[in-house]
Amino acid sequence: MNQSPQVQPSIPYGLQRPLSLFAILFLVVLIMMVVNICTGSVTIYLSQLFHLILRPDNTTESFILWKIRLPRAAAAVLCGGYLAVSGLLLQVYFRNPVVGPFILGISSGATLMVSLVMLTSLTMQLHIITPFTVTLAAMAGACIVMTIVVAIASRVKNGITLLIIGLMMGYLCHAVTSVLTALAEKEQVKGFVLWQLGSFSGFKWDEISLLLLVGGLLLMIVFLLAKPLNGFLLGEEYAMSMGINIRIFRMLILFLACSLAGMITAMAGPVAFIGLAIPHMARMIFSTSDNRILIPGTFFLGALVASGCDFIARALLSPVELPLSAITAFFGAPVVICLLMKKRVQL
Amino acid sequence: MNYSYTNAKTAALTCHNLVVGYTDKPVISNINLSFETGQFITLLGPNGAGKTTLLRTLSRHQEALAGSIRVGGQPLTQLRQADLARIMAVVLTDKVTPPLFTAFQFVALGRYPHTGFLGRLTDKDNDVVLAALAAVHADDLSHRDFADLSDGERQKVLVARALAQEPKILLLDEPTAHLDLKHRLEVMAILRNLCRDKGITVIASLHDVDIAAKISDRVALVKGGAITSWGSPEQILTSETVADLYDFRTACFSHHLGSIEIRGDQYRDRVFVVAGMGKGASIYRMLAKRGYGISTGMLLSNDLDCYVAAGLGAKCISQPPGAVFTEETRNLALREMEASDMIIEANHHTNGPYQENQDLIRRAAQMGKPVFSFRTASGRNETDGIIAVADSSELFTAMEVHCP
Questions:
Q1: The CATH number of the domain covering residues in B263-402
Q2: Which residues make Cβ contacts (< 8 Å) with residue B2, sequence separation at least 6?
Q3: CB pair distance less than 8 Å for A226 and B126
Q4: In chain A, domain spans
Q5: Where are the beta strands (DSSP E) in B264-376?
Q6: Number of other CB atoms surrounding residue B393 within 10 Å
Q7: Which residue of A has its CA nearest to B131?
Q8: Which chain B residue is nearest to residue A293, measuring alpha carbons?
Q9: What is the pLDDT confidence band of residue B6, given thresholds at 50, 70 and 90?
Q10: Which tens digits make up the pLDDT trace of B323-367?
Q11: Chain B partners of A235 at a C-beta cutoff of 8 Å?
Q12: What CATH number does domain A77-342 carry, 1.10.1060.10, 3.30.2290.10, 3.30.70.3270, 1.10.3470.10?
C-alpha cells in the first residue's frame, strides 16, 4: 500500500455526533413525557408531579397520575419506539422504503380477530367486552399471521414474493373484516372503527411491564443483530457472500419485527405511520444507514413522535380525543414527503 | 480434454463432474475444472450460456445439481458460511445503492467476516479497507457518497469491498459491463494485479474476447450446456473456436492480432490492394466497412497485412518469407488482379522483397484498370496512368468517380 503518511483519512464511523444526538433525543422524550403527564382535563403542576411521584397519596391528582397519565405516557414512548424499530427492521430486510411494520398483515390479522370479538355475538357469554378480551383477540390474530409469515419465509427465498404474500394475506383478512362490519350493528361498528385507529389510553401497569420486559428483550436482540442488518443493506446475495446465514437471519428478523408490531397492535391497536415514517427521519437526522446507530435512534425518535402525536390527539379538540392514527398520518405523511423531496433517503 | 497441468496441491477451486442449473433444468453439465491459485480465469460464452449460473454455484448462491466443488481442498458444501466468506468474495451484477454510505463505509462492510459481534472496526480493519481502496485506485473516493459515484467508480469500489474480505478467491460476474473503455481497462488491470501481487484467484465472466485473451491465464468457453474448451487463451482462442462460441458470421477473432475484425458484405466492386509492411491493414478495414470485395497481394505470410486480410475474409496472395516471390505467386496475383475492378497501391516499394509488386502495378495499368496510389509526386511517372490520391478520403472520392 502506497498510502502517503500525511494523508490521514478520517474514519467515518465517528460516535460523537450520534451520542450527543441520543442525549438530546432522550431529554426531549423525557420533556414530552412530562408534558403529557401534566396536561389534560386536570392540570398537574411540576412541583405536584415530583411530590406525587415520590409519595403517592389519595388525592384525585395522584389517582389520575398513577392510573391514567403515567401508564399512558409510558405506553406512548414504548409503543412508538418499538413500532419504529419494527418498521426499520422490515425496511432493511425488504430494502424497500415504503414498507412498514404492518406490511406483512400483522395488523390485518389482529383486526380480523378483534372484529370477530367486537362485531359478532361470539363473545355474548362473556357478558361485557372487556379491553382484556380485545387485547387477547388482537394478540391471537397477530400471532397467527406471524406464524404463517415466518412459516412461509422458511420456504420462499425471494423477499419480494414474501412481501406480496404478506400484502395478499392483509387483503384476505381485510375482506373478512369488511364482511363482518357490513353485518354488524351500528354501535358496535363505531367502537371497532375507533379501535382500528389506535389509542394509548387505558393501558394498565401489567401491560406496561410486559411491554418493558418482552419489548426490551426483543429490542436487545435487535441491537445485537445490527451487524448482519448492516450486511443486509447490500441485499441477500452479498449478505450471504459475507458470511450471513440468510435462512436463520431472515426468520429472526421477521420474528422480531412481527412480535414487536403484534405486541403493540394487541395493546394499542394498529397505530399507523410511526413505523413507516420514523426510520426515514432517523436516517436523515443521523445521516447514516448504520443500524448500530439507527436502532437506538429510531427507538428514541419513535418514542418522541408517538408521545407528541398522543399529546396533539388529546389536546387539539379537548375534551374530545382525536384518533391517534389520524394525527400520526397528519404528521408523518408531510414529513416523509418533505424528507424525500429534500434529499434521497430511499433504500 | 487435457487436465494434466492441474495440480491438486495448488488448486484453489476444483469442480468434479459438476452439474449446475435449476431443479428441473441443468444449464451446464459435466464440468471438470481445476482453478490454480493466483490465476486469472475467464468464463467466455454467449448470453444465456450459464456463466452466471456457474459462478453462482461456485459461490454457493445456488446448489449444484450434481458433482462436487472443493475450495482449498475442502468440500464447498461443508464450509460454514462465515468461513467461506473469509475465502471467497463476490462482485455481482445486482445494482446496489445503499443510501447514506460513503465509499469507505461501503468497503468497510466487506470486513464483515473479520469483525466482532457488533462489527466495530479495529485499526487493522481500517488499514485493510484503505489498502483495498488503494488497490483499486479509489483512495480519492473514500469520502464520496456511494450513491453519487459513476458506474466505473462504483465498480472499483465494489471490487474494493470484495478485497476488504481478504479473500483467496474472487468471483466476478461481468465486472466490466456498463463501463466505459477507460474503466473497463482499468478494472481489468486491477484484477490482473490482484492475481499477480496478492496471489488471489480471480474467476470472472467477461464479454470482451479480445481483452480476455490478453489478460487471462485460463479461459473456459461455455456453450450449449457444456464447457467446450478449457485452457490458456493462446491455445484455445482461435478464430474457429471464437466464431463457433458466438456464432459469428460477419466477424472474426484474429488469433494473431488478438482482436476482432468486422467483415464487410462485399456487395460492391472487387478491389485488389497492393500492400505490405502493414500499410494495407487500415485500407482493408475501410474497404470492408464500405462493402467492397477485397483481394490483396503479393505478401509475405508473416506480414501484419496478411493477418488482417485473413480476419476480414479477404483473398490474400502470399507466400512464406523468402528472397523473391515465386512464379506461382506472381501468376496467382495477376489472375486475382484481372478479376478485380480497381487496384489500390497502398505501399510503394522500390527495393526489398516488395519491389516486385511494382511489376503488378505496371501490368494493371496496361490492363486499363484504374490504379489508385498513395505515392508522392516525386515517385510518380507521368505516363503510367496512375491516379494519385493524398489520403483515404480522397481515395474513396476517386473510387466513386471511377467506379460508381
A1: 3.40.50.720
A2: B231
A3: no
A4: 77-342
A5: 270-274, 293-300, 315-319, 342-345, 371-373
A6: 10
A7: A1
A8: B118
A9: very low
A10: 788 888 888 888 888 888 888 888 777 777 788 888 888 888 888
A11: 94, 96
A12: 1.10.3470.10
